[in-house]
Design goal:
- By secondary structure, this protein is mostly helical.
- The chain has 4 helices and no strands.
- It is elongated, with a radius of gyration of 18 Å.
Length: 117
């Protein structure tokens, strides 16, 4: 629990001040404004994936149970697939956070951006 709290605290320390930065947009070119929006979108996507990547686990259990009509198979296969997808989403989120200022025009590694189903 201390490790999870420490990771969340570190993310807030890193990402928190970035959200407070604000420059006068009247002095920025359209390209600079677009770049700032892309960096912000990529960082927000990364934070969402890190915080909510674990939701892939129950989602996959439910999806596989519905597909197979077998709750036991859904529990085992869904847990396995959910763990893998949760790890991929969380790792993608960490990568997005770390590389937000670098090449923000690259598409997301994990789609959809946010697990809303």
């Amino acid at each position: 629990m201390k490790r999870v709290f420490g990771i969340i605290l570190m993310l807030l320390i890193i990402a928190g001040p970035v959200t407070l930065l604000h420059a006068d947009e009247s002095t920025l070119s359209d390209e600079q404004i677009l770049y700032r929006q892309q960096v912000g979108d990529k960082a927000a996507r990364g934070v969402n994936n890190v915080l909510f990547g674990w939701t892939e686990l129950p989602k996959r259990v439910v999806d596989i149970t519905k597909e197979s009509n077998n709750p036991i198979w859904g529990l085992f296969a869904g847990t396995f697939q959910g763990i893998l997808k949760a790890m991929a989403r969380t790792a993608s989120g960490v990568g997005d956070i770390l590389t937000a200022p670098i090449a923000p025009d690259k598409p997301a590694f994990v789609n959809p951006d946010i697990n809303v189903e």
